[in-house]
Design goal:
Rossmann fold; 8-stranded mixed beta sheet; 11 helices
Amino acid sequence: MGEHVRAGNLDIWTEQVGRGPEVLLVGGLGDTVESWQFQLDGLADRYRLIAFDNRGAGRTPMPDGPVSVEVMADDAAALLGVLGLAPVHVAGFSGGSIISQELALRHPGLVRSLVLQSTWPVMDPYLRSWARFVRRLVEFAPSERAFLEDFFLDIYTARAHNDGTVDQFIEEVLAFPHKQAPRDTQRFLDAFIDHDTTDRLPGITAPTLVLAGGLDPTARPELCRSVADRIPGARFEILEGEAHQPFQEIPETWNSRVDAFWRELAPVT
């Protein structure tokens, strides 16, 4: 059962499950702790998992003032500080992977390892154009359902669209009572469009696993690889046949892979 945790000047909605080495899960655009449900269910027998709603998403409010990746990384650091946890394994996807990069750069003592799913060092022109398209879609889609149907075309595989998985996700999102305001979605996107860690990635010292979906049309494998190439000793793997969010589409495979990575660093007791 989640709760609000006061961290700095922000009440961050946080859910903690399981026992063992601590793992911080960092979500992407508008995503809430529910986006990590397969991990909260599938890894809690081995790890203490901490998931949270970023500012402006779900049950965490969006304060007035500038929104930046640096601010959101500091939110995560403040949450870990209040919980008295350090260092922790950190796993982030999409925008959450960029927040995770910044967390490792700004607060290296808090990060035991990094798993970066569907990541990039800086948006290339194609990804930047896609992000701006989503920004417009938020405003002009005729309904929430229409927005989700269009947005999810680039997020999930054709397999997930054809077997009903995406329809199920859409119904769950539509039923979720804590909606992200369209303006907050746009402010989140704006924070990432020109954010650039290219020259700073070599400063990350935490062991890092970078995962790419082989069919991801947004955070494409070459973008993910460019992150791994810049982080000393980072591992890079392509999940063939997968798109942007394999941790939801093939959770058992994804959980097994990151579990093996964490176990290599220190055996789970």
